[in-house]
Amino acid sequence: MAPQRTNMREVADLAGVAMSSVSRVLSGHPDVSPAMRQRVMAAVESLGYQPDMLAQSLRRKETRSVGFVVSDISNPLQSQIALGAETALRAKGYSMLLTNSENDPALDSAHIRLFQQRRVDGLLLSLAAEDDPQTFSLLSSAATPIVLIDRELRGEAGRRASSVLSDHRTGMRDAVGHLLDLGHRRVGLILGQPMRFSRERLEGLKDAYAARGLQPLYTVVEGQLEPRHGRAATQALLDAAEPATAIVAGGNQLLNGALAEIQQRGLRVGADLSLVSCDEISLTQLYQPPIAVVRRDTRALGRHAAELLLSQLEAQEEDDQGRKRTTREPEVVLLPTEFVARPSCAPPADAA
Amino acid sequence: MAPQRTNMREVADLAGVAMSSVSRVLSGHPDVSPAMRQRVMAAVESLGYQPDMLAQSLRRKETRSVGFVVSDISNPLQSQIALGAETALRAKGYSMLLTNSENDPALDSAHIRLFQQRRVDGLLLSLAAEDDPQTFSLLSSAATPIVLIDRELRGEAGRRASSVLSDHRTGMRDAVGHLLDLGHRRVGLILGQPMRFSRERLEGLKDAYAARGLQPLYTVVEGQLEPRHGRAATQALLDAAEPATAIVAGGNQLLNGALAEIQQRGLRVGADLSLVSCDEISLTQLYQPPIAVVRRDTRALGRHAAELLLSQLEAQEEDDQGRKRTTREPEVVLLPTEFVARPSCAPPADAA
DNA sequence: TTGAAAGCGCTAACAC
DNA sequence: GTGTTAGCGCTTTCAA
After folding, report:
1. What three-state secondary structure class fits A64?
2. Which domain holds residue A80?
3. DSSP B82-94
4. Are residues A181 and A284 both part of a single domain?
5. A81 vs chain B: nearest CA distance in angstroms?
6. For the domain that residue A142 is a member of, what is the CATH number?
7. How far away is chain A from the Cα of B181, in angstroms, using its nearest Cα?
8. Does the pTM of the predicted model rise above 0.90?
9. What ranges make up the beta strands (E) of A191-312?
10. Which one in B34, B90, B93, B267 has a CA-CA gap of 20 to 30 Å to B57?
11. Same domain for A231 and A186?
12. pLDDT, tens digit, for every residue of B269-311?
């Protein structure tokens, strides 16, 4: 029996009270007599009444929902962030709308617009690009709080949004430092799109060389965070006149491609070639030999993003027109990364 | 400038027309003159008006949103399903609300109820349990179409919901058949919760033994789909009086645990012990030696689930009270699995 | 403490 | 083809 939905009117009628009284009981208004509460609750029970959040949202001008834009939820990095974020949001009574941008900045902005039409209370964004004009203008004039996840925007958009960032630079500095200390000089760094995480990783690598006063014999290969690029870049690094003796993959997708190429060439990780990846996955832990990583707590990244957004949400007040207005300034949270040395790193093969 | 949101009233006033005309233009009503369309669109542009989907939903009695309950989005299996589902939903203009049940059946039902209050048009469920009474009663009387993902419910709930199922049995039969043909007789099967996928896998294993007229020397270890269980089960299988010579892990989490134990014991996969896993992940492909798997197209699983739901949604009509009513019967879609033999499977070590 | 009434922003009859 | 009107289901003044 697909039950026709009961509305508040019916509850009020059955209880013989006004709708406003039902509303007060259900929303925990202080000024309700125990008798009233009883009558109403009895009616609610007997009808199996469930309030319509749509109508509540329209009236209250808040949906208790948050839009989350990722490029690809099937990427372990992003799904772990999503888990952390959803759990934190749910704990505060918020629901999460999720969408995939498929690495297309045009979809980023389309989804932001859609979420705005759905009147989400806030936005959690892991954008496909840091310089899309459409996205920029949408965010510059957004009416809700926004938290960027590991992204950095310039201009007005950047000034309006909060962000949760990972300290890729430090982790990468330690990773490359470890390789240099093992005797490597020609480190190959495979990066993804030109976004903050790529820039910071490059800086970290430079830091490591600079701190040791070494010539910049490293090679950087930029591209997309995809296995194809990981593989092509690895080919390039190994086929160079002066081949890299150690490779650092800036993400799990790149690692997949790199490993595929390494295996096809019959190279032994941690012997013929040293290898480091960014972000822990089951593969890095269980591979033989285990693969060194620049690690971070991805779930905490999502959790912090959600909590930052929630704190901005709570800091809102309504102006005289009944519209929400953010009173708090955007904030930036920096989360640590940590290099974990593993047997995939060893002295270079040609070190006599 | 956080822009106060324009509403349809303002657009109508600016264009000097009635609200209903604005509505008609925006919703593509056939009977509108080009002149009217122009006037309205000009006003819409100049105000940057974006319709309020909340109000639309309340009025139209549909939200164009779907609730998706998973146990843990950070699990590669589920995030791939989610990607497939979200992409298909988005293509038809639907948004996805995502929540994690954390493998807790009580959260399953709580989230279903919440989604119902949010008036989602349909539900996509990868439930934590197939026998929770709360979930059962909610689903038995649900007002919207429901698609179960790789789950099977009995009773009224099962009769009301559609489902997309994987043919685990065939894949497992081939996997175990392969092991038996290599000479293994004591196969250890590690399973998760007592749900359809576990039952089917067990049946597949039995099929393989039966087809060859072999004694049932296999061992089955049931538990949770978690690394801990994978590890403990592997210990048990290897420490038995008659240790298993081949292990089949019923999922990627179980594989993680199994591999950890195998490595700690210094056993060589594909030599001292044969290994098969269920569902492809980067680890199974890139491990050395590569790990045989019972494979399925997880993204297609999500896509089919979404498309099945969408087809049920399209088959709805409104009754005289303006309520939606499903006209189509629930459907079941069965998707294939495929065993992929790899070097992790070899004749048993004791085979002279 | 409770009820009556207005209205959130939109759509869909219905009338012209 | 366009305007007027009556709500969708709820919350929230405002009075009583």
Report:
1. coil
2. 60-160+298-335
3. HHHHHHHHHHTT-
4. yes
5. 8
6. 3.40.50.2300
7. 28
8. yes
9. 219-221, 246-249, 274-278, 292-295
10. B34
11. yes
12. 999 999 999 999 999 999 999 999 999 999 999 999 999 999 9
